[in-house]
Amino acid sequence: MKNSLSIGIDLGGSKILGGVVDSTGTIIEIQRISTSDESGIAQNTIDQSGIEVIHDIARLINEFSARYPISSAGVAIAGFLSPDRKFIGINPNIKKLENFPIHQHLVAATDLEIFIENDANAAAWGEYRFGAGIGADPMAMITLGTGIGGGIIIDGKLLIGASGKGNEIGHLPVVDQGEECGCGARGCLERYGSGNALIRSLQRIVHGRESSDNRWDDQIEGSEITAAALSGDKDALLAFDEIGRWLAVGIQAVSTMIDPEKIIIGGGVSEAGDLLLQAILRAHGKINPSNQLPEILIGKLGNNAGLIGVSELARGN
Ligand SMILES: [Zn+2]
User: Fold this and answer.
1) What pTM, to 2 d.p., does this model score?
2) Which of 89, 96, 112, 136 allows an S-S link to 261, with CB 3.0 to 4.6 Å?
3) Is 71 helix (H, G, I), strand (E, B) or coil?
4) 5-124+304-315 in CATH: which number?
5) Over the stretch 25-62, which tens digit does the pLDDT of each residue have?
6) How close is the Cα of 90 to the center of ligand 1, in Å?
7) How would CATH label the architecture of 133-299?
C-alpha cells in the first residue's frame, strides 16, 4: 500500500526502540523502552527475560495498532537469525533469546504478520531506501556500536546468504588466532574495530604510560571518547586511529569482494563523523596506496536506521 503506515521495532542489547513510519521513511511516533534494568537481558540474569522482551515488543505493536491504521510490522534484532527469520540464532548480545521462536510468539501476541530481520541488515535497507545510500548498488553498510554489524545490498536486494548469515562484516577474520569473539571464532573484525574495541584501545594507551593521569576511569563510555576526540584529546584521537586501522582492513576486504558504489557507516561510533572517516582513509592509504576505495559516508538516519529499514522491509518495499 502506497501511503500505508508500518511499525518498526529495533531490539538491541539494552533497549527496544519502536516507531510508526510512513512510506517516505518519516517517523510519525517513536517510543523507547529500556530493557537492561527491568528484564536483565543485557546482564543476562533473569530466565524469563526472553518472554518479557517479547511481551514488551507485542505491547508496543498492539498499542500502535490501536491508534494508527497499521498495514505491517517489522522487528530488527541484533545477532544471527535462522535463514527463514523465524528463530533467533547465536546471540552474543541477547543470550536469553538464543534459539527462541520469536516469530511464532510475536504473531500469536499481536495478530499481525511480523517481518523479522537482523538489525544491521535493516539499517542498511533504511539507508538504501531513505538515507545516505539512496540508489547506490551494490551498497555496503557497517554499523559500529558495541559490536560491528554489516549489511550488503546487491541488485536491489539484501544479501541474506545460504544459512542466513550473509553480511556479517563484524565477523570477518582479520587476525589469525586473534582475540576470542562472541560468535565463537577468533580474530573477528568486531574485536578490533568496534565501540568496545575503541574503549579497550584507549585503556591500553592510558595504562601503557608510566605516569598515568586519571582523566579516564575504568567505566569509560564510547560516547565520552568520541566527545574527547572531537575536542582534540590526543589519547582519544590515538584510540580512533587504532580502530580506524582495523576498519580499513575490513573495508578493503568488503570492497575487494563486492566492489560497492558506496559504503555507509552507522551506529553510535559513527557520531565521530569526519574524524572516524579520516582515520580510516589515512590507514587505507598505508595499506593500499594505489587502490581507490568506494565513497565512504556516514549514515543519515542515525540510531533510527534499523527501525525505519525494518518498517520498510515489512511493507514489502
Ligand atoms: Zn566473530
Assistant:
1) 0.91
2) 136
3) strand
4) 3.30.420.40
5) 999 999 999 875 444 444 433 344 677 888 899 999 99
6) 11
7) 2-Layer Sandwich (3.30)
